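The pair is quoted verbatim underneath.

:::
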Amino acid sequence: MKHPIWFGTRVAASYFVLLTAVPHQAAKSASAETEVVRAPIFVVDPYWPKPLPNHWVTGSTIGVATDAQDHVWTIHRGFTVEDNFKAADLKLGLCCKVAPPVIEYDQGGNVVNSWGGPGAGYRWPDSEHGITVDHRGHVWIGGNGQKDTEILEFTADGHFIKQLGTYGVHRGSNDRENFWMPTKIFDDPSANEIYVSDGYGNHRVIVFDEETGQYKRHWGAYGVNPVDDSVGASGDNGEGSKYDPAGPPPKTFRTPHCAIVSNDGLVYVCDRVNDRIQVFHKDGKFVKEAFVDRETLRSGSVWDMTFSRDPQQTYIYMVNGVNEKVEIILRSTLQVLTTFGDGGRHPGEFFGCHNITTDSKGNIYVTETYTGARVQRFLFKGIGMVPRDQGVPWPKGN
């Protein structure tokens, strides 16, 4: 992700005022429902994006990114589209057709480019997962199928550049050549490096030179070498030992789902199923951790994160896919200030909010997995007083 110069002095000034601010309570006796804080304000844009062309429909929309032109990129899983929704592809009716995996939208919500799928020289993932546009305009994707042990780099037009990792080959969380079900790639232009959260199979963050693909370093939870013990997942899915919200902090990542790097050189990792954020220096030295909605079981609470677009990156915006909301977190303390969203199918509601990004104006984009299968935009409206639980951020007067 790129971090272009912040727009406009008025909004920047609002952020500056808040740099040392702390949550403000309307009154000491206020309930959670009426307590207010000073934080970024967003409203859903129910008119973005525009309807897809060509009778297209999308499946689980499993990644989102923005580029230097503020174009919005998504990736979805075509194989998840139900048969009743692709009658034209099945020669059974007129509607509809599965869209190409990668879709590029302009700021008006129009589709301006699309591509993706198997091709010469690379192995397309069995199950797409995550999309990133780096500072050169190149597009990176991963996959979380059982044999997806590679990540891919393309030009913006979909021409293949390189593949890291060999499909179907993995040797555990200390393998320097292959991945196992990697979840997301982050571009660090200051060092010309990519960070890979790896992932559903492995339990680590791993870093490569962006140009050459050369291995640089990797680490697990708390900055130590990762292990591949059966740490399992939360809830009742039977995968090894279960996550215990009341137990001691887990020593191993469960599903590291993102790794993002701040302008001041800190790495923030989504330890999704462990309901926590862990923070590191770029060399993997552990700094601190914080839990978010720690009682969340099943797929966990910390699904994806991105930074606010002020120069200080004052806030982290985090999607919480089990609890169907966006959390606004004060980056300096990792304290949740406020949340917005709710479960549902209407604009501003979510089903499986999975990935999140921002554009240069500070607007937020959220994609939904499962049958949510869409991308939504939330317009940044400056800084102000909001409830701790905002609910659906519907535009006022509508």
In short: The helical segments are 9-17. The two ends are 33 Å apart (CA to CA).
